[in-house]
Amino acid sequence: MVGRLVGLSVAALLASTAVPLAAETPDREQIVSIVKEQRDATIEDLREWIALPTIAAEKLNTPAGAEYMKQLALDAGFQQAKIIPTDGVPAVFATLDAGAETTLGLYFMYDVKQFDPSEWDAPPLEGRLVEREGEGLTIVGRGAVNQKGPEMALLAAIKAIQASGKKLPVNLVLVAEGEEEVASTHFDQVVAVPEVRDALAKTVGVFIPSAAQSKDGSANITLGAKGAVEFQLVVGGETSDKYPKTDIHSSNHARIENPAWRLVKALDTLVADDGHTPAIDGWFENVRPLTERQKELIAEGAALNPEEEAKALLGVGRWIDDEPYVTSLERFLSQPTVNIQGLIAGYTGPGGKTVLPGRAEAKLEFRLVPAMTKDEAVSKLKAHLAKRGFDDVQVTVSGGYGPNETDEDSVLIRAQKALFDEKGIPYSIRPRNAGSWPGVIFNGPPLNLPASQFGLSRGGGAHAPNEWFLIESSDPKVNGLDEAIMAYVDYLYVVAEEAAEVSD
Amino acid sequence: MVGRLVGLSVAALLASTAVPLAAETPDREQIVSIVKEQRDATIEDLREWIALPTIAAEKLNTPAGAEYMKQLALDAGFQQAKIIPTDGVPAVFATLDAGAETTLGLYFMYDVKQFDPSEWDAPPLEGRLVEREGEGLTIVGRGAVNQKGPEMALLAAIKAIQASGKKLPVNLVLVAEGEEEVASTHFDQVVAVPEVRDALAKTVGVFIPSAAQSKDGSANITLGAKGAVEFQLVVGGETSDKYPKTDIHSSNHARIENPAWRLVKALDTLVADDGHTPAIDGWFENVRPLTERQKELIAEGAALNPEEEAKALLGVGRWIDDEPYVTSLERFLSQPTVNIQGLIAGYTGPGGKTVLPGRAEAKLEFRLVPAMTKDEAVSKLKAHLAKRGFDDVQVTVSGGYGPNETDEDSVLIRAQKALFDEKGIPYSIRPRNAGSWPGVIFNGPPLNLPASQFGLSRGGGAHAPNEWFLIESSDPKVNGLDEAIMAYVDYLYVVAEEAAEVSD
Q1: Which of A258, A329, A343 sits opposite B360 (nearest CB)?
Q2: Mapping DSSP to helix (H, G, I), strand (E, B) and coil, where does residue B21 land?
Q3: Which region, left, alpha or beta, applies to residue B158 given φ > 0 means left and ψ of -120 to 50 means alpha?
Q4: At B206, which helix (H) or strand (E)?
Q5: Rounded Cα distance, A365 and A226, in Å
Q6: Options 3.30.70.20, 3.30.70.360, 2.30.40.10, 3.30.930.10; which CATH number does A227-287+335-401 get?
Q7: Residue A23 confidence (pLDDT)
Q8: Could you say which residues form the signal peptide (chains A, B) (predicted)?
Q9: Tens digit of pLDDT for each residue in B343-372?
């Protein structure tokens, strides 16, 4: 996921008695027994899934991964599951009709990030069980926490309820994509398929299973995320015959234009002289200011996360404009950004080399806040450059999506609060994540659905070597696999109950 | 050499009768016989020198190369030769007192450019004799033409005159440096040594042996060169605690400054919005416009070098501002530049990656024209950035030197003209080379000496694989090694004669 596990640590730990207790899951002890009996099989299922990595950037196991995902859904009791082709990697659409009043949407990703086995202590595709200091028994492998582990736990929950002889308390609509790690490039095509769209439209919202329990056992609820759009600006012999096609001797700059200067001139117009405020024409038109409730949550979160720790973690001594901590956190969550991810042109080795580059490239990214959209931001960028005559600066949008935002009073979020309260799990509410995930696909038009993440247990190392997911926690406050599965079981019941209350 | 063999091909072929013929070299046939007898030994000497590459950037054979250079001078009949230590690679200073009226300065470089043997067809340190299509028999090796071949030819000329029983017609002062390929970083320290400075001050000028005969047999005379100063601008965690020390997750740009933006803002101030006119405060103060004579030479040169060929060679379709060819050539030779050699920051692989870079670097270079100086340009840059508050932008000057310019009526140049006339070799006069060499060390204060290049024969592949120097030419219009040696013999006599005429 594009940065979802990184970034904001604003947490507002709420008293666990604010919301009335939800009803018990029926025959819960029986289901707990089934989950325990099935544990070895569940772990084995996860290991087998980890052994088949789908990597969109490398076109690795893309049809095979989709077929596997489809079979996982069918094995979990979905009555129908089908491959949805896209212009990129295919997706999977599945439904489970339990004859329930309420329908819940599930978003899965079946792809994983690239990995280099030489950097791993355990083979990245083995799913080896490894004792982790201070955590407990973990499963190590690419995709363990991002996102196969939590997803497999949810599938195990669905199976366990059925194995107890009951129907699920909610109907399920599952969409699983294979391009999450390349910014969900074609995911809009999946939800545009009428059958998929119509099925999703009946849900109370869509969530992705996750494993975001903190080390102290607390959980968090996130009410949205910024959007992210990645693009590259290129100038050089490939965009205009003013520039050479390859690097040439630098003395020629006296008579030949340098594409690196042109890139600098174009970039310079995109942010103000302060070096951070976006200066693209019309950029702030649809930026919605923070609400009082959002500011309240930010202030509460700030109190729980010491400023000096945050600075040390990020390796900086100051926030933008030397702002105080809470102001910088408000900026962090409220401001859309134009970021330079990277620059590359000409000679990049030690010291200097007398060349005039044939090509200059800047890698950039927007972070968008409600109510900006991806199309709006890209159109404004292109119009901005065109207005200033930068027709030799090529814009390539490599992926991205807009922001998402889900109401605190939606069934999805009410159910999370109720469940944490019932279990006595302290939790924080993040008004928004500064990182991004493609929830806008569900959250934006035409579906306009609540979109969220939910899941207990813990993991780490997403996008890094030695990715892990907790199986048996050494700390009773933190959930292991069995408890994470049971949390999904309970969540399905609480969602059904909250939805019934809303519709009453 | 920093771009001396690349760049301008402005040539003004002059009628070969414009200057009165110089006197014959005495007993020339005897010296020719000696050169021929010594040829195998000369080639062997060159091969042995090539086998010992001195590479300043890699600190390879730096003391050994200086010792070897010193011994080469002593073997050639210099009465004294000594190592001159510097803060970098040591230089060599040698003198040959022939009891002559006139003293001539010689500038050698004993270092060579880096090489990668895997890119070569013949081993780069073997000095293998290879037949080259359309050229003749060549010696192939790193340093063959840049600059050991021409230098060894000059040493062979000095030996041959002495072997014929005569004293040289001129006294010689040799300075040889081992850091030419890293922009002569410490060469000013060498000529600042009183003994070296005083010896050079007695010369009529200093020249470096070269091999710049064209394929059609014509030669050229260059009356100067632009200066070149290389520097790097760096912004990041190492320059201010506003920036992170390493790349961090890009979502943080909403609250943390991005050093790449700061670099863009600083760079943007260095050139005008046209993307090429330097905008550093006071930049043009000491820029001397072209003289009518220089413009005349440029126009004559343009007529000899078709515009479309020049564009094709450089891979461009247009000159700056769509200027006509002669205007672009005047710009090429008259305009000082601020060039971006390279940019590097953050993520530089395919597509994008959600990082905020911890460091951003631009590699830049000035090209300077008379009467600008290196110190002036660097001071103006630093003052320009300081005035605009860019105290977090670190400037590192990695090397360089100012421009040089030698009068057409100096002994060095008059002797070249006389010699080419005598031999019936057509020649062009380049008013200035847009590339650079450290002639300013001699040409600037306190020495203020004429500084030039001279040498017949041909070679190629400087700084590239399969570097070569011609030994036996397949074309009678082009000189091979024997003739190149004799051209140096003749040149020493013509210099003595021209100097006598001037002092009469």
Answers
A1: A343
A2: coil
A3: alpha
A4: strand B206-209
A5: 12
A6: 3.30.70.360
A7: 60
A8: 1-22
A9: 999 999 988 888 999 999 999 999 999 999
Q: What is the pLDDT of residues B430-465, one digit of tens each?
A: 999 888 888 999 999 999 999 999 999 999 988 889
**For the domain B226-287+335-401, what is the CATH code?**
3.30.70.360
The stretch A319-332 carries a mean pLDDT of 97
Q: What is the mean pLDDT of chain A?
A: 93
We find that the CATH architecture of domain A28-225+404-503 is 3-Layer(aba) Sandwich (3.40)
Phi/psi of residue B100, each to 5°? -90, 165
Query: Partners of A95 in the beta sheet?
Result: A80, A173
Nearest CA to A208 out of A448, A463, A4 is that of: A4
B64: Cβ contacts below 8 Å, ≥ 6 apart: B52, B54
Omega cis (within 30) before B147: yes
- Average pLDDT estimate for B136-140: 98
Chain B residues in contact with A367 (beta carbon < 8 A): 250-251, 253-254
List CB contacts (< 8 A) between A436 and chain B: 251
Residue range A43-70: average pLDDT?
Answer: 96
Position A245 scores a pLDDT of 95
Exposed/middle/buried for residue B44 (C-beta within 10 Å: 0-12, 13-18, 19+): exposed
Q: Do A340 and B316 touch (CB under 8 A)?
A: no
Is A169 in contact with A496 (CB distance < 8 Å)?
yes
Measured in angstroms, the CA of B22 and the nearest CA of chain A are apart by 36
d(CA A95, CA A248): 59
Rounded average pLDDT over A25-49: 97
Give every CB contact of residue A292 below 8 A, 6+ residues apart in sequence: none
CB B379 within 8 A of CB B281: no
| Cα–Cα nearest to B428, from B154, B213, B208 | B213
**Best of A226, A233, A252 to mutate (most B CBs within 10 Å, chain B):** A252
Asked whether A370 and A288 are in contact (CB, 8 A), the reply is: yes
Rg (CA), chain A: 24
